[in-house]
Write a structure and sequence with these properties.
By secondary structure, this protein is mostly helical. It is built from 17 helices and 2 strands. Helix 1 packs across helix 4, helix 4 runs antiparallel to helix 8 and helix 7 packs antiparallel against helix 8. The longest helix has 29 residues. The relative contact order is 0.10.
């Protein structure tokens, strides 16, 4: 077993322990207010423990180590804040996408709809209340991510620097989420899918965790700038891969329905490529079911076949490879630190299936 793998497993255990400590403390505090509030926190804890690769906190710790940092409890707390932010955004994203499963289990809205609010007879009202609980859960975790940074024990200067990066990533991801949501009803071409990828995903999945870690380790501004460009390319590739998995992934592996993007009619990069490559007949077949809220699995499979036939899937794969090449080139320009640890992240994008 490699030393890097051993370090990674140790980091994941530290992150998970920090997550458990955070939730157990808040479960106790919530119980003082209401049993119902305590239940929300328990459900949030169950959800975050149900899956996830802890990618964002791991990247923070990896960047910190790559530029000479020595792991400490304060840095682990700051890294773990990135997982709280990630979970908050997943919960909100599921509300927006009208998805009720995450990691193969009921998400917050799904849990409340099926279980806690099952006694609400009107289905529309029940879904409204369930979505409301999910929105509150996401809000709590955004707040929690800031609190975890503030209470990390790092120096005031370090906390201020991290807060600035963290706040900017939330600002960027909200913009990316909005234009991604609007892409379902905007005219094709009004929303650029790569802009969505940059702000919705690259901002908080790669740019923020990597630059936080490098900043805490004392990396130079020149290195931070180059690292940011590496993270941008990596993040766009990651989102384009996510779009492919969102339609072509195996639900048993992804833990969530793969029909959602078809049902919502999202204009992803692959869909943009489809409209630039497809024949009139293919477009006609595609538009019969794409964006249909009642689309069946058979119809969804037809959409997948058309994306393959048109060359849209292959074109997207080629674009992902091109961004990975750019990321490799940007990384090679960084003169300080052990960038090999960061180069290994490229495999996370190219080989993942969920």
């Amino acid at each position: 077993m490699s030393n890097t793998h051993t370090q990674e497993q140790t980091s994941i255990r530290s992150i998970d322990e920090t997550i458990d400590t955070y939730f157990l403390r808040n479960i106790d505090d919530a119980a003082q207010i209401s049993g119902y509030y305590e239940q929300l926190w328990r459900d949030m804890h169950v959800l975050i423990k149900s899956g996830g690769k802890r990618l964002r906190p791991r990247m923070t710790l990896r960047a910190y180590a790559a530029f000479g940092g020595k792991e400490s409890a304060s840095v682990v707390s700051i890294a773990t804040s990135q997982e709280l932010l990630h979970m908050s955004l997943l919960i909100h994203d599921d509300v927006i996408d009208r998805d009720y499963v995450r990691y193969g289990v009921d998400n917050i809205a799904g849990k409340y709809f099926k279980t806690h609010y099952a006694h609400v007879a009107d289905e529309s009202s029940r879904m409204h209340y369930a979505s409301s609980a999910a929105i509150l859960a996401g809000d709590l975790l955004i707040s929690g991510s800031y609190r975890m940074i503030a209470e990390s024990g790092a120096s005031a200067e370090a906390i201020a620097s991290v807060m600035a990066i963290h706040g900017r990533s939330i600002f960027d991801v909200a913009g990316g989420e909005l234009i991604d949501t609007e892409s379902a009803f905007r005219e094709l071409g009004e929303v650029d899918a790569r802009t969505v990828a940059l702000y919705k995903t690259a901002s908080y999945t790669f740019m923020s965790p990597l630059t936080i870690g490098a900043t805490l380790a004392g990396a130079s501004q020149d290195t931070l700038d180059k690292l940011g460009r590496f993270a941008q390319s990596l993040g766009v590739a990651y989102q384009l891969r996510d779009d492919v998995i969102g339609i072509f992934g195996d639900e048993r592996t992804t833990g969530k329905p793969t029909i959602g993007d078809i049902r919502e009619g999202k204009h992803t990069y692959m869909v943009e490529e489809f409209y630039s490559l497809a024949t009139s007949e293919q477009k006609k077949r595609f538009e019969q079911h794409f964006g249909d809220q009642s689309v069946t699995q058979k119809q969804a499979d037809e959409i997948k076949n058309i994306l393959i036939e048109s060359g849209a899937l292959k074109s997207t794969e080629n674009t992902i490879s091109a961004y990975m090449t750019i990321a490799e080139e940007e990384l090679s320009l960084i003169a300080e630190g052990d960038v090999q640890q960061l180069r290994e992240l490229i495999a996370v994008v190219t080989k993942r299936d969920k």
